[in-house]
Amino acid sequence: MKQFLVGLMIFFSAYASAESVLICKTLEKVDGWKAAPTHDYVHFTANVRSNEVLDKAKVRGAYASDSRDILSDKKYAPKSPAYKTYNRFQPLEDAWHWFHPLIPKELLSQVGFFTGYLQVMGEEGFRGTLKLLCYLRN
User: What is the pTM of this model?
Assistant: First the structure.
């Protein structure tokens, strides 16, 4: 009986500490760059530690960023009212671009599919904001 209880405690502690995975994808293919022009979907994934911390975040598909832990930008003050309920996170980057994910402030409360955005800044300046369809996988 003691072994069963210890096993049950281990199981529930592992389940409780499991992070949700944020999975996002553009609805349409976009023109990107990975050492050469690309035309593909953009995927953004991260392990969600909290509403303000994303671990192992990365962009892939039409672009290919580095993979690292990123924090929300506490000083972010969007000019557009459409982004007031979003956290902007520290940028991911590749050799030519910076990628700022915009994810709902109440990320861990999201159920089903929701909208996210990815601001793309190139060496030559702002490239645009990509709309993402996102969901959390537990």
Answer: 0.84
